[in-house]
Amino acid sequence: MVEISNGSLTGAAPVLSVRDLTTSFRVGDEWRSVVKGVSFDVAPRETVAIVGESGSGKSVTSLSIMRLLPQNASRIEGSVKLNGRELLTLGNEGMRRVRGNEIAMIFQEPMTSLNPIFPIGKQIAEAITCHRSVSSAEAKAEVLRLLDKVRIPNAKSRFDDYPHQFSGGMRQRVMIAMALASRPKVLIADEPTTALDVTIQGQILDLIKVLQEEEGMGVLFITHDMGVVAEVSDRTIVMFRGEAVETGTTDDIFNRGKHPYTRALLSAVPKLGSMGGHERPMRFPVIDIATGETRIPETEAGGVDESTRPVLEVKNLTTRFDIHSGLLGRKSGAVHAVEDVSFDLRAGETLSLVGESGCGKSTTGRSITRLVEPTAGAISLDGYDVVNLDRIALRKMRRSVQMVFQDPFASLDPRMSVGSAVMEPFIEHGLGAKAEAREKAADLLERVGLKADMMHRFPHEFSGGQRQRIAIARSLMLDPKVIVADEAVSALDVSIKAQVCNLLLDLQQSFNLAYLFISHDMAVVERVSHRVAVMYLGEIVEIGPRQAVFDNPQHPYTKKLIAAVPVPDPARRSLKRNVSTDEIKSPIRPVGYVPPKRTYREVSAGHLVQV
């Protein structure tokens, strides 16, 4: 373990001081340490980031500070002091008064933190009345002040709204308002932006910066996103296998990091604008954590034969979902999820669909595979007229197109071994005997970087990155021409994301696959795409070669997406992007609504922008 420097950059006395924190869990008859001797300080108005991948111990560190771990199965040792007062020896009642009052916490998924059966105003008011003696009218006035502070529009009218009536970004703002209700001295933010769209992420980061200055809080920011770390933190602690392997100012960590794991994390971060001079997608560098040496060099992926006929052609695709209301359930409107979308895709090509949640990109992918029924338009895939296929022909068509979803754990049956899961499509489509299926599954598992002898294991025995590899192997069992990758790497740690993206590029070259890559991660999209289509409110507002779209964005929404991407450069820490706090507009339209006919102008060869 390295020597930890704990001095704050502000020179102020620390508000939170952690020394030799060791957390162990009972496994059978023994105690197993998952956090080992971690020490750090957080001063007022200072942001300290703890970074590392899943399993590094960073979230357990925060839960140990808050004493939220189960008492009968965990053991916390060392010292945690808040303004000089030891928290680890406080009684349960004393600790309850500290939580939410002097130390507040924001979790990764706000929907699991908010109670779905209570209005958000009541939930925030509860956080106030638990710690302060105030009337209900005073509590409501304070809640409205907090909602205004976290930039929720029309706060007064939304006091009685329920969590499901808010977007993901607005729910996270509600959680921040709740965390700030008692004006805490320390705010612990545990992956608060990981699941959010890039523009919403930018808003939340800006908001935390502003509120920190206004309230004088110390912030402990836990994340695996090095771009976020560069933009928000004063000092950074790098955790690996439960230990703090390197610590220092964020500038030192990014520019003069010494530990191999620190260099591995930094090298795997996709940097927006790093593709200058490269027309084709580029593989990510992957560093061996043990030696710090590059194992996979940055190399260009394959090109596309423009003379070939597209393997997928989409013309004027429209997908709407009817809304029924009233006693008789009459149609009262429709969600215009996809509206008049057209594009094509060639063998060996990656077309990325980008945009925020609710823009229609996932519905586009599901419409192409007929997992949802299109309302209008034409889809030609590998010679099939997809929209007009009957049930038997549709089943046959799906051998040509497969999907890889964001959450591989939800995609795999937990009761089925991974060998059976990978073999299942081959057997269900009657493509050969079970022995042939087993042989092909073993070969594909090897191709995606796993071992054939893992076939008897179950999904819970694999890491997230390994499960995504299994999902990719299963998608290849039917020798598809097109793979729809729907946020396939969004939930992965940064180095695992690099490995899976490299795997996808390798498989594309080996099998001449066409990818429809659906993502909101602009830095990854820049790295893996041949062409990019930007979607907003169900429509493509800009489409063109990757280099043209990123180097010369024309539509205001494209510029907004690119401007919101966190850049792994500590020099930007004082900058605020001032991203618009508007929510994405609603795609719900009344009965009889006829959308305007859109026109496009050609900026350069193949680069079209909506007028």
Describe this structure in words.
It is found in: Cell inner membrane. GO terms for molecular function: ATP binding; ATP hydrolysis activity. The protein is of the alpha/beta class. 32% of the residues lie in helices and 26% in strands. It has 21 helices and 25 strands. It has an 8-stranded mixed sheet, with helices on both faces. Strands 6-7-8-3-9-10 form a 6-stranded mixed sheet, with helices on both faces. A 5-stranded antiparallel sheet has the order 17-16-13-14-23. β16 and β17 (384-385) form a beta hairpin. The N and C termini lie far apart (58 Å). The model is unreliable at 1-5 (pLDDT under 50).
**Strand arrangement, major sheet:** 18-19-20-15-21-22-25-24
Number of domains: 3
CATH architecture of the largest domain: 3-Layer(aba) Sandwich
**End-to-end CA span:** 58 Å
- Quick one: CATH class of the largest domain? Alpha Beta
Rg calculated over all Cα atoms: 25 Å
Percent helix, as a range, is: 25-40%
**Range of strand content:** 25-35%
The rough form would be described as globular
Catalytic activity: glutathione(out) + ATP + H2O = glutathione(in) + ADP + phosphate + H(+)
Subunit structure: The complex is composed of two ATP-binding proteins (GsiA), two transmembrane proteins (GsiC and GsiD) and a solute-binding protein (GsiB).
GO molecular function, one term: ATP binding
Membrane topology: Peripheral membrane protein
